[in-house]
Amino acid sequence: MTKESTDISQLITQAKKGNLTAQLTLAGIYEEGQGEAQDLGLAARWFLQAAKQGFAKAQARMGEKYMHGHGVEQDDEQAIFWLSKAAEQNDVDSLANLAWCFQNGLGVEKNYGEALKGYQKAARFGHVNAHYNLGYMYAQGAGVEPDIEEAIKWYQRAAKKGSAKAQLNIGALYAEGNGVEKNDIEAVEWYRKAAKRGYDKALFNLALMYKEGRGVPKDYQEAENLFREAAEQNYSRAQYYLGNFYLNGLSVKKDVSEALVWFRKSARQGYAKAQYQLAKITMDEAESEEDFRDAFTWFFHAAEQGHTKAQYHLGTLYVNGKGINKDNVKAYSWFYAAATDDEPRAIKALKKIEKKLQPAELAEALEEGADLCAIAEEDDLAD
């Protein structure tokens, strides 16, 4: 028997007898795979034994494990149970995690007031994420009156401790002029701080500033570099913009095939603009009914998210029976949705197709169209 196996055997013997240090040591060994094969289940088992003895850090770890399903089956109720136990002992991570559960309704009824109290208590211990989340709640008016000055105060505290999310959000407030005087130069500086940490959303926002020449001279090459860095982290909006750079030959050689690669990556993650672009190129180059069906699918996904041009093109596919059976009621409803967003081609198409519908069909189409109008497409700026 090797010395290592003897040591483990001794630890297990001690841990089974209730030795807290042995339990925690075993938990760490199995979690990190130090000298033994990594086994998150065994790690959780020994953390649980330590937690049952009232050790706050072990209780905190069990709360996190049940939150995320690491080594145990994900269980919101158990997460709340153990986080509450640790929070009672002022474990700062548990205070912040429990507040997050109240903020998002995870395992408990959503309660912004309890979330705010938890974050405030964790913030007094200097918890970075608590600082950030307090900033977010004040910015959004979640459980409190919106107060951008207070939001910036908390964001700045988190930012000074290296929170890229806080740095990003301060930049977004300056870029939008939300509660502060609009200042693109200040926005760029905050985006740059977060981007230096490799934060995909900050890389993307900084790329937009270079693309549009806001706060910095317009520079497509720098924008492309930043979009690419974020896109390679699988950030869908950056993938879409990188695709557009290839489609239009901005700082790179025009390459429709490469553009489609990036559009498809983004579209598969549900980004409406990429779904539309992928559908439009597929439709324009369609050589078979299968191509039209593919275009229809991507137009539909984008249209469902409120993309006006996708809604219009979906209507035309229904009118012409391309990729889908002809259906004038469906066509009218999608034209109606696009027309309410002032799509001129849809307005014109409505007048033509209305003549083809019976009164009952028109009533149905109007009802469907009204439902579709409630959808709004997301903005580009990330926060």
Structure characterization notes:
- The chain is mostly helical and 383 residues long.
- It has a domain at 291-383.
- The protein has 21 helices and no strands.
- The protein has helices at 3-16, 20-32, 40-52, 56-68, 76-87, 92-104, 112-124, 128-140, 148-160, 164-176, 184-195, 200-212, 220-231, 236-248, 256-267, 272-284, 289-304, 308-320, 328-339, 344-354, 359-372.
- The protein is elongated and about 80 Å long.
- The protein starts with a helix and ends in an 11-residue tail after the last helix.
Number of helices: 21
Structural class: mainly alpha
Strand content: under 5%
**Low-pLDDT segments, ≥5 res:** none
Tell me roughly what share of residues is in helical segments.
over 70%
CA-based gyration radius: 27 Å
Shape: elongated
Number of strands: 0
In round numbers, the mean pLDDT is 94
The largest sheet, given as strand count, sense and whether it forms a barrel, is:
none
**SSE string:** HHHHHHHHHHHHHHHHHHHHH
State the end-to-end CA separation: 56 Å
Summarize this structure as a short list of keywords or feature phrases.
single chain; 383 residues; mainly alpha; 21 helices; 0% strand
Quick synopsis:
The protein is mainly α. The chain is built from 21 helices and no strands.
SSE topology:
Layout: H1 3-16, H2 20-32, H3 40-52, H4 56-68, H5 76-87, H6 92-104, H7 112-124, H8 128-140, H9 148-160, H10 164-176, H11 184-195, H12 200-212, H13 220-231, H14 236-248, H15 256-267, H16 272-284, H17 289-304, H18 308-320, H19 328-339, H20 344-354, H21 359-372
